[in-house]
Input
Amino acid sequence: MKNPPVTKELTLANFGDGSWTNVAEHDAIYETNNYDTKRFLGKMSAAVATDPERQGKFLAIHLEKQEKERKLMPFYTVLKPKAPIAIPGKATALGIWVKAHSDWGRVVYSLRDAKGERWINIGTKDEWNCNDVHGWSMFNFDGWRYLRFELPSNSEYDAYREFGSTWWGNYGGDTIVDLPLKLEKIIVERRTHVLYVNDPQPADPSDVLLGQLVAEYEMPFDATRNAVTLNKLRMPLSTAGVVLPNPIAQMAKENTPTALELKGVRMPDWGYDGTTALVDFTTSADAAGYQVWLAAYPDGRGAVILADMTKSGEQMYGLRPARKLYLWVTYKTKDGKVSKPSNRLDIQLVDAFGMK
Output
């Protein structure tokens, strides 16, 4: 995908102006977001520096000797501005000038939207292929380079999730980017080793230099308050509402055979991608078969039969990872009667890429 043309840029900050604070604080969301990477708070120092290749002052990030060697995992530190930095309007991307030395560290942005929802550019938790697969934020080069990273966004009116959102994880909100955004901190990763084919070799320990931080805009209008106002425009929701049948409530009221106990779900031995699970429940000697019901609402509205089973522990399909869903189990007796529904089980499955 080609980047959209940039017709306006705004300098948001300069890391070399002496206003940034290097803070050694844990970020639990960042540390545990990706199944294949564990990140560790490291010893790093930061100091204002100059560079003979470019004019101005820069922030030099120095990786100190660590208490424990972790050859394949990154260490990190947190850089905070004096106050959160507002990103005016609806920016397309953030860009930062970096001097690096191919240690495969990176820059991670932590943003807050207007409703306090957090956005961090390491992808959705435990999802695969959305944690900067392009290397846009990576220190995979020597010398100076401008690192451009697309911002998350939603369109006005229908809140369509725009392309840049793919590379961001969000926490504590409704998954919609409510403008304007603010940058609350930047996380800098450094690595002590890099892989040469399959052999970990010491990385270049030279300081990483951070320069200007820039917001890019596709059109000049996008940098204005009016762009924020336009982005808040939403289609009117129906006031009539949708009335869904509730088979769970109906069966609980009308059916007579005793309900079973739904004990839980388990991941299968292979191919656990969040769309399938094994279902455990108590059984009945009078049962001719069992039905697993699924609903998107906890009270059972809109519930449908997702799977027919002959016994407990069988596998069901057609689920959705990272989505709160609700299950019940019933059984059909040998004379054709249907039992009361079991207790409700709340699930939210994970797309475990390692199982693929």
Summary: The chain has a mean pLDDT of 95. Residues 8-231 form a domain with the Jelly Rolls fold (CATH 2.60.120.200). The longest strand covers residues 54-63. The chain has three helices and 23 strands.
